Amino acid sequence: MLTFKPDPTLPKPTIAGRRSVPRVRLFVPAQVMLVRGLEQCVLDNLSQHGAQILFNARMPQDGSGAVLKVKDLDVFGTVIWVKGKHFGVQFEEAVTLQQVVQIRHYADAYAEHQAMINARNARNFVQGRAPGRRLR
Predict the structure, then answer these.
(1) DSSP string covering 15-80
(2) pLDDT tens digits, residue range 20-69?
(3) Can you give the pTM of this predicted structure?
(4) The domain containing residue 98 runs over which residues?
């Protein structure tokens, strides 16, 4: 059987393309501090170097500052692109992998909680009860 041994004299491969670190899909509520004040948003995805934000208000301009606030994370960055209802923020200082993982755990718990609420509301609808009312 043939085995492959890398040549130690060759340079190690690097990741090609725009992303050199993985990003996690989240879709959790967050806040973003812009020049005009604190706004509600949805954190679509997160990496150690930046984030993609879904926003329903007036979009910020490229180059403007932003502070992303989600759970226990507050991180300053710069808006580097705007497209439709999304914009990207590049962080001034990278967040740790541990912080990204903590936000991922928060997102998982949030999704599970939302699924329970949706199931309860569907059950109430089928049983003819108003949302939030209990049987006596």
Answers:
(1) --SS-SS--EEEEEEEEEEETTEEEEEEEEEE-SSEEEEE--SPPPPTT-EEEEEETTEEEEEEEE
(2) 677 899 999 999 999 999 999 999 999 999 999 999 999 999 999 999 99
(3) 0.73
(4) 24-126
Task: Please report, in angstroms and rounded to a whole number, the separation of the first and last CA atoms in the chain.
Answer: 73
Contact 99/68 with Cβ under 8 angstroms? no
The structure tokens 């059950």 sit at: 123
Are the C-beta atoms of 21 and 45 separated by less than 8 Å?
no
CATH number at residue 48: 2.40.10.220
| Mean pLDDT, residues 3-12 | 49
| Number of domains the chain is built from | 1
Which residue pairs, CB below 8 angstroms and at least 24 apart, start in 108-114?
110/28, 110/29, 111/27
Cβ–Cβ < 8 Å for 32, 39 = yes
Kindly report the number of other CB atoms within 10 A of residue 100's CB atom. Answer: 19
Would 136 be classed as within a structural domain? no
